[in-house]
Structure formats: C-alpha cells, structure tokens
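Subject: for your reference before the review

Hello V.,

The reviewers asked for a structural picture of the protein, and I figured it would be easier to keep everything in one thread rather than splitting it across files. Below is the amino acid sequence we used in the manuscript, unchanged from the supplementary table.
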Amino acid sequence: MNFSDLPPFAAPAIPLALAGPPVFAFGAWFKNALCRAQDGVALMSETVGDLDSPEACKRMDALAEALLASGAPAAIAHDLHPDFHSSRRACELAARLGVPAIPVQHHHAHVAAVLAENGHPGPALGLALDGVGLGTDGTAWGGELLSVEGASFERLGHLAPLPLAGGDRAAREPWRMAAAVLHRAGRADEIASRFAAQPAAAMLAQLLDRAALCPRTSSLGRVFDAAAGLLDLCPVMQFEAEAAIALERAAAGYLDRGGDLPAEADGWIIDGAGRLDLMPLLVALADEPDAARGAARFHVTLATALADWIAQAVARTGLDVVALSGGCLHNRILSQRLGAALRERGLTVLEAQHLSPGDAGLALGQAWVAIHHLMAGECRAS
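And here is what came back from the structure prediction:
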C-alpha cells in the first residue's frame, strides 16, 4: 500500500529496522504529530501544535482521517494519558475499526523514537529528559533512566522528585520550583523575602508543608526551572521553555567568554534505588551571586552527573548503547557535553537524527512499540 502520496505525510520516509503490519500512532498533547508505519517504513505527519485549542484538535482529527485513505491499521498507539485528545481519538478510532488500541508510556516512546530512527533493535539504555509525561505509577515523570527492549521497558532510575507547589502553575512559574528547593533544603524562611515580588510567596512555605497538596515530579524540565528561579533569570514564564532558554543563554555567554568550569564533584547523589538527586547543585545555586556563572555551573555539573548515573547503569546491566531523548535535549550545551562524556566512556550514543528529540517525534516511538506488540502477538482489539 502506497501512502506517501498523502500531502500531510509527504516528509521523507524513515526506514525501520523491522518490518511489520500497518500501525497508526497518535502522539501526545504537546507538538502533536501522527505517524503511520508499515512494511519497514514510517512516515510522520506535519506537526499540528499543542492540543489546547479546538483548531489544533480539528487539524489532528483531519490527519487521522487522511491516514485511513491508505487503508486500515492493525493497531493504533497512543500516549498513556487517557485524557489527551490524541488518546481519546485513538481509542475511538480503534473501537470503530475493531483493532487494538495500545497505550505507550511517554518516556518509553521517547527512547523508542531514537532507537527507531537509528535502526537499533535494542536492548538499550534510554535516558528520557523532558517536562512531563504520565508514568505507569500515575505520577508525573520527566527524568527517566530506562532499559528498553521492543514492547517492554524497565525504569532503572529517575531524578529525585520535587514538589509542584500549586500544581500545574509551578510549570509556568519557576520561582515556585526554586521555592520547593529552598523548602526541601530547610530554608523555607527565605521564600517570602527572596520572592517578595510574587504575591503568593508569603504563603508558599505553608503550602509546601502540606505534601498532599503538592504533587511530585521527577521532571528535568522542572529542575531547569528551579535553577532559573534560584538564579533570578526567569521568575515567571511568558512563553514555553522561557526559563530553560534563559538558563542556556546565560551559560553559553559565560562559557563563550572562556569561563569554563569543572563539574562540582559533590553536586549530586545517586542512591541505592538508582535515583539521581541534584539537590546539592541546586542548593549551591541558591547562594551563587553571578547568575551566568551559576548557569554554566548547572550545565557542566548536570552533564557530568547524568553521565555518571548512566555509567552506573551500564555496570549493572551490561548494556553499552544509550539512547538520549526528550525535549531537554534541545539544549545544545547539555546534549553536546553529555554525548561527549558518554563517548569518552566507550559507550555507543544514539540521538535523534531528523526528528525532534521532543514530543514532535513521539509518534514514531509509539508506532515502533506497537509493531513490537503485534509481532509478539500480545494485543487484541478491545
């Protein structure tokens, strides 16, 4: 079946290392794009954007109907989160066609997309670093160290969680993530004065005292926000990823001026459960008077900490291939330093090639996982 003639799917075909029956994949919420994979080839749709408006949802629906012009799939993959428009439409279409709907955990899909693009069948280690994705335990993930093999994955470790003071609002106001660091460090009495320009600052310590009201996240994106808030680079965001962009720009300026820094040898802790805790680094930033130097210190130490974390997983598992994925890999300082550090350790590093490492490329990973499910005979229509 030739489906490359469909205008929304006219991008270059992505060869896959495995052939299989046709599958659709519906992506996630942010930067939504769809994928169809069949007979060892995958095609990605145009990106419709975030599914936070009726217009974007209608564009996604139109793409889904366009996919059907090339024939029905054997299965439809979607994000694990049941309330995304993409997940609901995927399940509705699967029921209509009488084929399985396959939920794929967000970070499993991120790693799978990199494996698919690089033609690597697995098993492999996967590092997925982003803002948020629903985990299998119902919590917000985003700093995940996985082992991935086909349709299955194991969560080997994750970043030590930080509380979201104010829930989703904390993802838009980095000062709240900074306040969470201070609270965890036993310095809650500094929150009100340090963030006096924020009306909610006076009461935030009391909110953080009530853990049940502050869901926790392992997201590296929120760690970036905390660092930007502690360095006063971006207390409140006006657009997506503004804090992370400000942090990277400040670090790049410092490093470009020749102000290179060694990694803070005591800037992180890896516990017996495989959790990577960056609190020592973040607490040091709270006392850093030079924001640019602090931003550079954050990037340099973070890359070294992640490389050390992965190296310990390599020693435990014997796997020496690492797929780097997730939206945080758009940060060039992090991606370049981390990739170089891993290669220096003799590891094979796989990265996104033509697709985004973030959510715009997620559907490819979902399709790759779905094909593995079908080939293993593990799914039936619901």
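For the response letter, the relevant points are probably these. Residues 291-317 form the longest helix (27 residues). The two ends are 26 Å apart (CA to CA).

Happy to draft the paragraph if you're swamped.

O.
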